[in-house]
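Hey, I was hoping to borrow your eyes for a little while. I've dropped the whole record in just underneath, so have a look:

——
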Amino acid sequence: MQGNLNEIDICSILHLIELGQRTGQLLVETQSFQPSKKLERDEALRHRPQQQSWFVFFGNGQIIYCQAGESCFSRINDYLRHYRVEMQPNEKRLTSLAAMNMPEYGYIWALLEQNIINPKIAANIINSLVHETLFDLLSLHQGHFIFRQGVALAPQLKTLEVAPLVTKIIKQVQEWKQLYPYIQSPEELPVLADRVRLASLPAATLDKLQQWADGKTSLRQLARYLNRDILTVAKAIYPYVQQGWLQIVYSVTSKAENYIGTQDLPENYRGRIVCIDDAIAICKTVESILQTQGYEAIVFTNPLEALGIIFQLKPDLIICDITMPELAGYEICAMLRQSTPFRIIPIIMLTGKDGFIDRVRANMVGATDYLTKPFTDTELLMLVEKYIYTNSVDNNRA
């Protein structure tokens, strides 16, 4: 069984495996943006979303374990911190584990065999790792998957039924989206912002914020340290972020650096434009048209990724598709208009041929203009030049 996530969603895939009582492993990968051969390597990195992968291991339709990509032992060590476990298997054992197909799972069993943790702690860690991996997977709407039947992962410590777990996590994913645009990714880092106002908080609350909001600990790591799910942690800090007492940022070594400052700008540089569209073909078309005219074009096929980076990119204009499965263009526009830096940035919405209602809704959330698909090079450039020029004049007047 294999296919693309725009044809069948993760939830349905998991239920099919459960109903068929299948044994084997599910591999899910996000689609990477394949740049043109004409682009240099550094330029290609700027425009290619980071590829990610996940593995889910099944036994008779039940989940045995989940792993995020080529994961090392850091996820497990984060949970060990919660249980105040400082010992590790000896160095020789760690070296042998790293060479295994499933190093994470082997690491948990090594901890068990050497009595560093007990079966209850091991089961709790597995449950938490499965939960956080499925949270990421059930948030996906793009990518491809393949399920291979085979021998069940062994030995087994516990198994988890798919249906109740998926129902619970889908509800959490829906609640998570309500935290946008203030909190967007589990990998973001909370940082203290307004220390003067924070001084008015109770001492115990301030101590906790100072301990965790250090700009080095991600929300996901914080959830592991506290042994809480990511939604609970995000909801707890949400009021402080909303009031401006905390800021949520990406690490300075994050993928945002891949988009900014990796190459000199062209001599005929005319401005930075961000395009958000889940169709790779549209992104390639927009990028090609704009780059030939001296614009810096940065494209995203994942709207959530775009939202996480766009505040650092500071574009001169945004082109955004209206219909995207993960996050609608209306929602993106409305979120950006709530932020002061984006109140006057031109936002052009991409609509279908019969998009009258789309256009009305786009105007209601603050879109500057719209462009009907399919469009010509001339139509795109006329709109871009119109609003890039207008925006630069308005900024100069301000």
Summary: Confidence is low (pLDDT under 50) at residues 32-49, 252-257, 393-398. The chain has three domains: 2-176, 189-249, 264-397.
